[in-house]
Amino acid sequence: MKDHSIPLKLIEILSNGEFHSGEQLGESLGMSRAAINKHIQTLKSWGLDIYTVTGKGYSLPAPMQLLDKDTIMAQLNHARLDVIPVIDSTNQYLLDRMNTLQSGDACIAEYQQAGRGRRGRQWFSPFGANLYMSMYWRLEQGPAAAMGLSLVIGIVMAETLQQLGAQDVRVKWPNDLYLRDRKLAGILVELTGKTGDAAQIVIGAGINLAMRGADADQINQGWINLQEAGITIDRNDLAARLINSLRDALPLFERDGLAPFTERWKALDNFINRPVKLLIGEREIHGIARGIDKQGGLLLEQEGEIRSWVGGEISLRPQ
Q1: CA–CA separation, 314 and 205 (whole Å)
Q2: Catalytic: which of 69, 118, 264, 307?
Q3: Among 179, 120, 127, 164, which residue's Cα sits nearest to residue 14?
Q4: DSSP structure string for 31-53
Q5: Which helix (H) or strand (E) element contains residue 22?
Q6: What residues are paired with 316 via a beta bridge?
Q7: d(CA 194, CA 144)
Q8: 248-284 exposure pattern, b = at least 16 Cβ within 10 A, e = fewer
Q9: Dihedral (C-alpha) 110, 113, 118, 124: value to the nearest 10 degrees?
Q10: Is 283 a catalytic residue?
Q11: pTM for the whole structure
Q12: Distance separating alpha carbons of residues 143 and 264, to the nearest angstrom
């Protein structure tokens, strides 16, 4: 595993948002100014904006709150959390260790080098800007019992964000969070297990907290972050609350399925009673969104008839 200790120490020094000269940084870290500049390039490749001003040195655009494992652990009902600053993917980290995990084990990171979204897409994951988290869960009833799981994750994430001050966060079927009709967070559920066996599940979540500019080729849809919406949430507090809330909600889902969550979904549904288009492969289905059924299928009304759909993605249809 590559040693990231110097770039991480550099971020710690720069995290106060003030200027630090190359000379000061070199003295602190025991290296030349040229070596410092090389590490600054590494930070830029991690998605950090670094101001470089002759005579003043280097600075981040604003102070940055770093993840603090001790702070998070102090708030957890049960420990079992890995905090890894630089990782390929939090989901992959847990998938590689599934045989040693127990339900509720979690992992969070500052930066993902190969973050994954749905349908094989990349999840753009700049350092320190957002929250990247994954949790392992084992469903003894098998893969079929996981139907609707991503909806439960969305509900828990939205409710947690609302409790922390983001009152307008809503859910989008089947696995995104929306704010002001733009994507705020994504959920990726990866499942292994044959019918008749227990299902081993890794749940990944990425929440945009203060993400800076991303190119269109990095993100292919309208997105928003909490900072842009004028909402500041403590990342360590959010991580702890989210982990605790998921560990509380998943046994309930395991026991009673989606039933205890359907009313909670209804209260959070960003698209309910709005005209939408559902994309399934090349097919485009237009209708009015009418919530979800008991299995978590999307209810679409077309010409007075309501039908349930279980696959695809929805978006708002211009009226």
Answers
A1: 19
A2: 118
A3: 127
A4: S-HHHHHHHHHHHHHTT---EEE
A5: helix 22-29
A6: 276
A7: 10
A8: ebbeebbeebbeebbebbeebbbbbeeebbbeeeeee
A9: 70
A10: no
A11: 0.88
A12: 24
Contact call for residues 76 and 243 (beta carbons, < 8 A): yes
Let me know if 255 is a catalytic residue. no
User: Which residue, chain included where needed, has tokens 């979904």?
Assistant: 265
Query: How far apart, in whole angstroms, are the C-alpha atoms of residue 109 and residue 128?
Result: 8
Q: What token pair was written down for 179?
A: 């704010």
**Tens-binned pLDDT, residue by residue, of the chain (319 aa):** 578 889 999 999 999 999 999 889 998 999 998 899 899 998 998 888 899 898 899 999 888 889 999 999 999 999 999 999 999 889 999 999 998 999 999 999 999 887 555 545 555 668 888 899 999 999 998 888 899 999 999 999 999 999 999 999 999 999 899 999 999 999 999 998 777 788 999 999 999 998 665 443 444 457 898 988 888 899 999 999 999 999 999 999 999 999 999 999 999 999 999 999 999 988 999 999 999 999 999 999 999 999 999 988 898 877 5
Could you confirm whether 317 is annotated as catalytic? yes
Residue 20 CB neighbours (<10 A): 18
The helix/strand/coil state of 59 is strand
d(CA 135, CA 288): 34
Task: Identify residue 128 by its one-letter amino acid code.
Answer: G
Helix/strand/coil for 206: strand
143: DSSP letter: G
Cα–Cα distance measured from residue 52 to residue 49, given in angstroms and rounded to the nearest whole number: 10
Q: Which residues does residue 160 pair with via DSSP β-bridges, in sequence order?
A: none
Catalytic pick among 9, 183, 264, 274: 183
Q: Is the peptide bond before 174 cis (omega within 30 degrees of 0)?
A: yes
- Residue 243, helix vs strand vs coil: helix
Question: Which residues, other chains included, contact 136 with Cβ-Cβ below 8 Å and sequence gap of 6+?
Answer: 94, 98, 101, 102, 103, 104, 105, 106, 200, 201, 202, 203
